[in-house]
Amino acid sequence: MKNTTRLAVIALVPAVIALTFAPSVFAKAKVSVVGAADYYGLTEFGSNELGETVKGDLGYGGGLLFELPMSKSVGLELGGIFLKRKVKGITSVDESGAIVSGSTDGKILNAPAALRFTVGRVFSFHAGGFYERAFEDGGSYDYGATAGFRLNIPTRAGAFFIEPRYNHGLKKEDGSTINNKVVLGLVGFSFGSSR
Question: How many whole angstroms separate alpha carbon 136 and alpha carbon 34?
Fold first, then answer.
């Protein structure tokens, strides 16, 4: 199975899970369209051949989140966020044979699964896990814990929101002590029931 096919299957999982819920629950679901800024800079990979620190940089992306209500103030949030993640300090050899430093982009699918706790109409927070898969890098993957809070600006159709969240990877590469540490900034609009 090709990496893009695997990623498409991962992206469809939240929709399949949502369709298994009772129609009355699904009718009360929220759908959020999000834009994302992805700061990968807390992850340090050591030094390159020039003695510079190799670390993540600022990337961007977007996606969809689905919140299925479990009670008046708690929901199950599933979704998929496609990210273009950057790493700087990657070295290569130029035409003259000199080692030069630059950056590289990686395309990632982040699939969170978390409980969202709503406090009033303006504030909510979430805690749970995530799974990530890369389009390149041999389809490398990660999983871990996620947490964050959301500030809503209610409208008649739903709510605009901003949401900082932190993802802490738990998978270590072979023999490595590196954990991915990512800060995401989400901005979006949430459609659906306010419960």
Answer: 23
> How confident is the model over 32-69, as pLDDT tens digits?
999 999 988 666 677 766 677 777 788 899 999 999 99
* CA–CA distances in Å: residue 81 to residues 27, 37, 111, 134, 154: 23, 11, 6, 12, 23
Per-residue b or e along 93-105, where b marks 16 or more CB atoms closer than 10 Å to that residue's CB: eeeeeeeeeeeee
Domains of the chain: 3-192 (2.40.160.20)
Using DSSP bridges, classify how beta strands 53-56 and 123-134 pair: parallel, antiparallel or unpaired.
unpaired
Ranges of beta strands (E only) in the chain are 30-39, 44-47, 53-56, 58-69, 74-93, 99-119, 123-134, 141-154, 158-169, 181-192
For the entire predicted model, the pTM comes to: 0.77
Question: Which DSSP state fits 70?
Answer: S
